[in-house]
## 1
Amino acid sequence: MSRQHIHFVTGRLAERAVRACVAQAAEALKFDYTIDVLGISVAALMTPTWIAARIAPAGGATRVMIPGYCRGELDAIAEAAGIPVERGPKDIRELADFLGRSGPGVVALDAYSIEIIAEINHASGLSTRQLLAAADRLRREGADVIDVGCAPDEAWSGVGDAVRALRGDGHRVSIDSMDPRLIVPAAAAGAELVLSVNAENREAAPDWGCEVVAIPDSPEDVDSLAETVAFLDDRDVPYRVDPILNPIGFGFAASLTRYWEARMRWPAARMMMGIGNLTELTDVDSAGVNVLLLAFCEEIGIRSVLTTEVINWARTSVEECDVARRLVHHAISSGTLPKHLDPRLVMLRDTRLVRPSADEIAELAAEIKDRNYRIIVGGDEAERDAEIHVVNREGHQRGSDPFAIFAAVEAAAARPLTASHAFYLGFELAKAATALTLGKTYRQDEALDWGMLTRDAGEGSHDWRAHHDETNPSDEPERDEC
């Protein structure tokens, strides 16, 4: 197979970084290359039409790679070059990963085996409109069944109407109560699952005409769970088994053992785990907890989980479980690690930290001849040595305090900052400070990567290109991309 030859297109300011990164990637991935430095400082300001009029691919080139920020259709470049054209990464330092990756975005995580039951707590306190809105949101986030949460000893005459409204809106519904006075009208209205039954209420279960969740009379009383299972078996009541997950500090490890023992005792039984006892009752962001619990469920054949989103740190648990069930299913069914498959649950930090070195920043600062501010988070490899840098022809400000940096920028400016520009710099410095604190990659004018919580509209929706004039530079920033 012939060796590929990539013809890279870039601008003057990015040339040094592009040459270094391309050389490194070419050595690692074994491809030939040429670099076409066109007559523009800011590579991202190129347009396909502008590139097409100037590109001159080297003989033997097999494809062209243009800057990742270059917008528009690429047909004009392909026609002028006579070879395929693609956009590169937005950050040239990610070139090797971009060209050689086989993980993120390649594996389709479509399959899963765990059903998500999402509880709406205190459903009786919601209007029908509020109930349906909550259920629709949960369904969009991945819920398969909407659980109508009821309080103990609650007298709710409208439970049947609530279930009927949910069913009418196309939802599968479960009822979270042990009180037959609530269960009977809910089942009659179309609830397909009752959470839960034990010695307290199992005598009524055969009359409900739906599946139930069998639980022990108390979490440690496994014999009582066996008695309820036998009762349901004798009366042909469909059920799934939930030995009850205990919170940390109240028998968590022992409760996991109960699930394992229940699977060994009833190898063909359907099982459920209520995971809220961990996500809601532990001072930790819920995503990692959800992944670990769903991995346990996937491995031993627990095919449904009950989750809720009451406490703030678990407010996205349903969506987290939807990603987690796909991730663990692929990992376990394929015999591969759940790593570099889907980055959506890496939210606090990034899958990979990309930062320029202090030398790279100094080189860029020495070459800049205009007033446009470049905001960069980088420095030496040691995390404690990373800083925020603000660079233009008027100076190079650096540090970890965005207020001090802004004051230095203002003092060095040849003319006063406008209110809008001051707001822009403050906004970007705040993002940079967050990235510095958490160890995240910062890219000017881009949203920080918060995994599935990333908000492009808000953090990175402004467009500086419309205001940048190559011949008469404005105060808008430029970048050092490919």
## 2
Amino acid sequence: MSFKRDKMFYKFSLYGFLKNLRFFDPFMILFFREMGLSFLAIGTLYAIRDLSTNFLEIPTGIYADAFGRRKSMIMAFISYITSFVFFYLLRGYYFYALAMVLFAFGDAFRSGTHKALILEYLRINKMEDVKVEYYGHTRSASQMGSAISSLIAAGLVFYSGSYRYIFIASTVPYLLDLINLSTYPKELDGELAKVQKGTILKQMRSTLKNFIGIFTDFKAMTAILNSSTFSSFFKVTKEYLQPILKMFALSLPIFVVMSSQKRTSLIVGIVYFIIYLLTSFASRYASKISKRFKNLPTAINVTYIIGAVFLSIAGISTRYHIQLLSIAFFLVIYVLENFRKPMNVSIISDMISHKTMASGLSVESQVTTTTMALSAPILGALADRFGVGLALTIFGGIMLIVSFFVKIKKINNT
């Protein structure tokens, strides 16, 4: 490995590990379905979350650059924890919508900010040449957290017989991550955190100007759109693996004496553990995989097309009740997303000033949430009307068309 494993590397890795101990992730749609919600209603809840995040992206990104990225992260985790408590205590569509808004506050304060902390650390320590490797290894810890989380979540559902407890249990690792974040050094806040009071408004105007300038940079926006559209298609469709896993679990001629919820929890826990174990390795070796291609843009473009084709095949497999094949293709899509993330962060960071890195990465997140907000209700309505399989097939086809419009061209430093 070409970089040092110092104290901050382990803190960054611990952050990702704890952040991904979100025990509700493998069961979110199943939780909503158990509460009697249609796929369309679930889609609108995700849209509420994403639109709220989108609305807050610009002010929170500017806040992070101008006043402190660490403070932004702490506010994010307080919002998350409050959201988890609401999901646990309250029931009903409107209460869930409120919890989603609180979750959106967390996402808005966090999105792009922790990546900016890592990239600032690499810049200060003159380690920018190992961005893909370094970020890939810290993201690997995040995916390992998701792997462990899926097993713990399955155990909680199996023994409690309820999905509600996974929300309150998620507050524990998030409180621990709050403590971890509070130990990050002040220098990672970046130059804008050190401005004098009399120049704050001037600095904010400068930050906003640079932020808007990102939208006028064609190459930077193409890279951002490539990353954000793939991620949005992935994030919107990946949740539908849960009902596929439920159908698969109930079709197996084993554990028939158990309740459907317990059988489902076992299969969901095992499958998600395998998925996140593989995505952990995918993030870790993203740099090596990217070097097998002619250049970084080629690696990003090719993996986009593969992801679109595999999503379509996963949908067709689901429609014809070949759940095992559908699960396998979803597994590959998860791996592709985690190959791509470190590569996308690297290529985007090459095009954006380190001074506005949090804002720049928030643009990427903002486009992602906008696309998700538009897509989630549509996918939900399609799933209600035509079934999950055909809905996924349609989205895979749309994703393939989009891939030709967000193709990244070779740049000098890649």
## 3
Amino acid sequence: MKYMLILAEAEEDFAERLKDEAAFEAYMAPWMKYTQDLQEAGVLLGGEPLEQSDKGTCVRVRDGKRLVEDGPFIDSKEQLGGFYLIDVPNLDEAIKWAEQCPAAKTGVVEVRPLWEIPS
């Protein structure tokens, strides 16, 4: 079964890490290990980090008119930092992988199953 691990952390923490190269490298080390562990277990289907939320653009269509706004749509203390797409037998296995994710220690990892649409 396919699950998306949706990663969210405090925006201030992320911004602070970007200011110092050594802090950023120390932050990234467990992420590299985690990604390697997912690959070696054969469960990783994909994943990518996201830019900071202030680089986002929101698009809505209301009454047939396109509305485009800069910045994040969600008013939150946390930002979406990225995702992993994994294929594991069940929710329990997905949760085990989520708990090993570095974001679980400082933010939150949402485990969401993909909706499998019949063809």
